[in-house]
Automatic annotation (TrEMBL):
<dbReference type="GO" id="GO:0005249">
    <property type="term" value="F:voltage-gated potassium channel activity"/>
</dbReference>
<feature type="transmembrane region" description="Helical">
    <location>
        <begin position="162"/>
        <end position="188"/>
    </location>
</feature>
<dbReference type="InterPro" id="IPR003937">
    <property type="entry name" value="K_chnl_volt-dep_KCNQ"/>
</dbReference>
<dbReference type="InterPro" id="IPR005821">
    <property type="entry name" value="Ion_trans_dom"/>
</dbReference>
<keyword id="KW-0472">Membrane</keyword>
<feature type="domain" description="Ion transport">
    <location>
        <begin position="34"/>
        <end position="193"/>
    </location>
</feature>
<protein>
    <recommendedName>
        <fullName>IKs producing slow voltage-gated potassium channel subunit alpha KvLQT1</fullName>
    </recommendedName>
</protein>
<dbReference type="Pfam" id="PF00520">
    <property type="entry name" value="Ion_trans"/>
</dbReference>
<feature type="transmembrane region" description="Helical">
    <location>
        <begin position="34"/>
        <end position="58"/>
    </location>
</feature>
<feature type="transmembrane region" description="Helical">
    <location>
        <begin position="93"/>
        <end position="112"/>
    </location>
</feature>
<keyword id="KW-0812">Transmembrane</keyword>
<dbReference type="GO" id="GO:0008076">
    <property type="term" value="C:voltage-gated potassium channel complex"/>
</dbReference>
<keyword id="KW-1133">Transmembrane helix</keyword>
Length: 270
């Protein structure tokens, strides 16, 4: 049923028909799960007997089922976090990798120069120095800076050992810097997200406090600005002089509203 879901989903969608036929189909066709469905259908159709359409080779497409692991992070938050950290620290990463690769190239070349003229073994008639080409020296350099050290290619002369020792101390330190840069970048990014969440939780409380203080200030009798709530506050004993001055036809400014009738309570609470 999970394999049939991408093909059935556009038909049972609650969207309108044009959107259902185009956008729904496009979204499902772009899903990695569709690759798994197609690969499984091809393998099941061709079977395991015969060599029609290279069935044995197509059977290897079943490895694409590993793409189901991508559903663990459907929103892509992990990749966005990694991309943001790399983008922020791109200058430091480029600098360290550039210097590290320069050290790798030159050190491998110096080791090759020191080891290519090694003394030949008299019994076997072979070169005891295994650096027969610059490619061997470069292979040795890559294995050394990655701290793997297979041991299949090693310097045998004293000059080669001295160069290899200096290279190991210098190049490995530069190739190890990106790990520290990315680690500190991840820690700072996570700390920044936590700080942002804490700040977002404080915004409603701060807004309520500001509104309460403004209501108290605007409802004060000594407040003379036009932006005031005094016109909405009902006066229980309006002076008769106001009605007489208005000729009996004017209306007082008592406008009781349900939303502002509790302004006195705000004043008392604050």
């Amino acid at each position: 049923m999970n394999r049939l879901a991408p093909s059935v989903r556009p038909c049972v969608s609650t969207e309108r028909l044009p959107t259902k036929l185009f956008y729904g189909s496009y979204n499902n066709c772009s899903s990695p799960n569709l690759i798994v469905v197609v690969a499984s259908i091809v393998v099941l159709t061709l079977g395991s007997n015969g060599q029609v359409f290279a069935t044995s080779a197509i059977r290897g497409i079943r490895f694409l089922q590993i793409l189901r692991m991508l559903h663990v992070d459907r929103q892509g938050g992990t990749w966005r976090l990694l991309g943001s950290v790399v983008f922020i620290h791109r200058q430091e990463l480029i600098t360290t990798l550039y210097i590290g690769f320069l050290g790798l190239i030159f050190s491998s070349y110096f080791v090759y120069l020191a080891e290519k003229d090694a003394v030949e073994d008299e019994e076997e008639g072979k070169n005891t120095g295994t650096f027969s080409s610059y490619a061997d020296a470069l292979w040795w350099g890559v294995i050394t800076v990655t701290t793997i050290g297979y041991g299949d290619t090693v310097p045998r002369t004293w000059m080669g050992k001295i160069v290899a020792s200096c290279f190991s101390v210098f190049a490995i330190s530069f190739f190890a810097l990106p790990a520290g840069i990315l680690g500190s970048g991840f820690a700072l990014k996570v700390q920044q997200k936590q700080r942002q969440k804490h700040f977002n939780r404080q915004i409603p409380a701060a807004a309520m406090l500001i509104q309460c203080l403004w209501r108290c200030y605007a409802a004060d009798k000594s407040f003379n600005s036009t932006a005031t709530w005094q016109v909405y506050l009902s006066d229980p004993n309006p002076p008769a002089a106001n009605n007489n001055a208005a000729g009996g036809s004017g209306s007082n400014y008592s406008m009781p509203l349900s939303k502002v009738s509790d302004s006195n309570n705000y004043v008392q609470l604050c």
